[in-house]
Amino acid sequence: MKRRLPPLLALRAFESAGRHMSFSKAAEELNVTQGAISRQIKLLEDFLHAPLFRRLTRRVELTPFGQSYLAAATAALDGIERATLQSLQEARALSVSLLPTLGVLWLMQRLGSFMTEYPSIRLQVSSSLEPVDFKHEGVDVALRVGQVPGAVYPENGSQITFRMTESWADVTAMHLWDDFITPVCSRRFLEEHGPVSTASDLTRLPLIHNLRRPDCWDAWFRANGIEECSGAGRVDVGHSFMAIIAARESRGVACVPTIEIDNLDWRDEMVQPFDLKLRSAGAYYLLCPRDKALSTEVKLFSNWLAAQYQPAQVDADIETSE
Questions:
Q1: Torsion angles phi and psi, residue 146, rounded to 5
Q2: Is 57 helix (H, G, I), strand (E, B) or coil?
Q3: Which 8-state DSSP code applies to residue 33?
Q4: pTM of the model
Q5: C-alpha torsion 278→282→287→289, nearest 10
Q6: Which residue in 50, 173, 192, 244 has its CB near the most CB atoms, within 10 A?
Q7: How many CB atoms lie within 10 A of CB 267?
Q8: For residue 216, which of 145, 131, 265, 271 has the smallest C-alpha distance?
Q9: How far apart are the first and last CA of the chain?
Q10: How far, in Å, CA of 292 to CA of 176, rounded?
């Protein structure tokens, strides 16, 4: 059976005005205008077919019906508030620090699916490239890219020199994805400047450089038998996502990690001219304090995060091996 319930905004306005016995104080509490409160209460009165207030010269009074309806409305909203506070207190919070580029380009848009799947876990999300300091930042897990002490990485790959954490003491690093770089450009750019079929074709094109990963182009060219290439022009940007945006705007060809473009909503606007992907000297990891690594929240989030990107298989004769 369908419920006959009043508009919630109108009910909140009435309850606040009745509690304060003032339209202006209700407006302050709900951060709206006094006129908005008056309109909402009139809407509720029309819905109920009964007056709730007597409008006097300098004040308002509840009608007898308004008094009884206020008691019912207050009890209902109090119950909803108690249930909401209990839910928030029971929700397990997880503070997550993401890489800005992955967050901006595609990962932030997907977090809603995690919260829908696990409503009992309340995410607190921030973004940073800086080394995470678990002791002082209040962060539970951090997505970072770089090198884990003791791990072996390709010597001829693009060197990822980012520091991932202030201290590795009592920190666990869960491997998520390897990093592969490759040139990308927009379809429009390729139509205007193509064809591009060999690495040497890039020597006549403007190249976009990410100053935070300054050796990407040099490493990729060396892996393809070209010792030095400056292109026909140079565009410098300060972040990887800016390099991708510049490529989308047809300002040149960028050399970027495949993970940053494969999940784009506008991936079909971009072209990867070569199948040649160079594995970098570093990878993507989810970091967390060792004592939290086995918690339910961290395990659920790490499994969910790993599933958000499934890299294509790289043929052995294309991948540059260690």
A1: 165, -150
A2: coil
A3: -
A4: 0.70
A5: 160
A6: 244
A7: 12
A8: 145
A9: 67
A10: 17
All structural domains of the chain, each given as residue ranges with its CATH number in brackets, are 8-90 (1.10.10.10), 93-307 (3.40.190.290)
**Residue 229 contacts residue 217 (beta carbons within 8 Å):** yes
Cα-Cα-Cα-Cα dihedral of 255, 259, 263, 268, to 10°? 30
Q: How far apart are CA 246 and CA 236, in angstroms?
A: 10
Q: Which two tokens mark 48?
A: 């109920």
Task: Return d(Cα 300, Cα 284) in angstroms, integer.
Answer: 18
What is the residue whose two structure tokens read 């901006």?
104
Residue type, 185: C
**Is 301 within 8 Å of 121 (Cβ atoms)?**
yes
What is the mean pLDDT for each group of 10 consecutive residues in the chain (322 residues)? 86 94 93 93 93 90 94 92 71 89 93 92 92 92 96 92 94 96 95 88 92 93 84 88 96 96 94 92 96 93 95 48 32
Burial profile 157-195: b = 16 or more Cβ within 10 angstroms, e = fewer: bbbbeeebbeeeeebbbbebbbbbbbbbbbeebbeebee
CA distances from 230 to 186, 189, 245 (A): 20, 18, 20
Q: Of 179, 162, 144, nearest to 277 (Cα)?
A: 179
Other beta carbons less than 10 A from residue 31's beta carbon: 7
**Strand runs labelled E in the chain:** 53-55, 60-62, 92-98, 121-127, 141-146, 171-186, 206-210, 233-237, 253-257, 270-271, 278-289
Distance CA 152, CA 175 (A): 13
Q: Do β-strands 278-289 and 141-146 pair in parallel, antiparallel, or remain unpaired?
A: antiparallel
The number of residues making up the chain comes to 322
Euclidean distance between CA atoms 286 and 140, whole angstroms: 10
Hey, which residues does 54 pair with through a beta bridge? 61
